[in-house]
Design a protein that fits this description.
The chain starts with 6 loop residues before the first helix and ends with a helix. The strands form 3 sheets. Strands 3, 4, 5, 6, 7 and 8 form a 6-stranded antiparallel β-sheet that branches. A hairpin with a 2-residue loop joins strand 6 and strand 7. It is of the alpha+beta class and about 325 residues long. Helices cover about 40% and strands about 25% of the residues.
């Protein structure tokens, strides 16, 4: 039998998990739940005493005098709306793996009552198929943040998608960089860095970094002008267009497989062609299809539909006429 001094903790768990403004627990219900949870019988007087202990510890608990029904936990570590917003953001984030998302969402939902947890589970009914395959994201962020804080160089391997849509190491030799900033653009986390040998900025997807290692060598101090250039470097725009979705077929150079998967996810329908090429079949709008082709003009060709291919040729001719 559990000691009665533990009942205050059991009472707090019950209030956190089973009570809210729409699910108020009576005195008798609380006594019964404590009995089931702790295998201990308590009197009303003991229950009132435990509630007062929790209030003195800072927990706000509504009682019969407030609602004419019973007790529930008023304030929590997070408000319900805050938790649901964070959970939806995590679920929608492509760069957080499915396993990590479920663990993080579970921790957040644990701060709500059982009924409130079901609100999230019931509202999110579609799996996010664009989730990253790399499950070391949080570890990467921790190591990179430490390297930035201590102003130390960083070594890591970098992953990319090959022609078979498999994440593989881009090169055997590790990358060595001077980590500067972590930024979030296009709903993805990036490391903005410089190279020990030259000052130009470059960037890496943090969810594609593997085995980060902090090196003993310090980074070079940045001049004020270089700091301002970092902000301009990190600027980026999403391209989103309204309109009817149509099937589009592209012939692409294999070197842009990473970018195509970034945009369409690993569910991208891609068929190998001649060495160095693949055929991509996607669903997008006409404007989006043309814009994508323009962004990768030297590596992509619209094959179908034919009218869209002719429209692309027309735009290229018009652009050449302006030169």
């Amino acid at each position: 039998m559990a000691e009665k001094k533990h009942t205050a903790f059991a009472l707090l768990q019950i209030l956190q998990e089973e009570s809210d403004e729409n699910h108020i627990l009576t005195v008798n219900e609380l006594i019964e739940k404590i009995n089931v949870k702790c295998n201990v019988s308590i009197e009303r007087r003991t229950l009132y005493s435990n509630i007062e202990i929790l209030r003195q510890a800072g927990y706000e608990i509504s009682d019969y005098n407030d609602n004419r029904k019973g007790y529930y936990l008023i304030t929590r570590q997070f408000e319900k709306g805050e938790v649901l917003l964070l959970c939806n953001a995590i679920h929608a984030s492509h760069f957080i793996s499915k396993k990590q998302s479920e663990e993080l969402i579970g921790k957040l939902l644990g701060t709500l009552s059982e009924t409130q947890r079901h609100e999230f589970r019931d509202s999110v009914y579609l799996p996010n198929r664009l989730k990253s395959d790399n499950s070391s994201l949080f570890y990467n962020i921790e190591i990179i943040s430490e390297a930035i804080r201590d102003q130390k160089q960083l070594s890591f391997s970098y992953l990319h998608y090959n022609g078979k849509k498999k994440l593989t190491v881009k090169r055997e030799e590790p990358y060595i960089v001077e980590p500067r900033y972590i930024v979030y653009q296009d709903s993805r986390p990036y490391l903005i860095s410089t190279n020990p040998k030259y000052a130009d900025y470059t960037h890496y997807r943090i969810d594609k970094i593997r085995d980060p290692l902090i090196l003993p060598e310090p980074v070079r101090p940045l001049r004020k002008r270089e700091e301002n250039e970092a902000y301009r470097y990190a600027e980026n725009k999403l391209f989103m267009f309204a309109g009817e979705t149509i099937p589009v077929q592209y012939r692409c150079e294999e070197r842009i497989m990473d970018q195509m998967i970034d945009i369409f996810g690993t569910q991208l329908r891609a068929l190998p062609e001649n060495p160095g090429y693949f055929t991509a079949m996607v669903n997008t709008t006409e404007a989006g299809a043309l814009f994508l082709a323009q962004q990768f003009l030297d590596a992509i060709e619209i094959q179908e539909p034919a009218y869209l291919k002719e429209e692309m040729k027309k735009r290229l001719r018009n652009n050449l006429a302006r030169l």
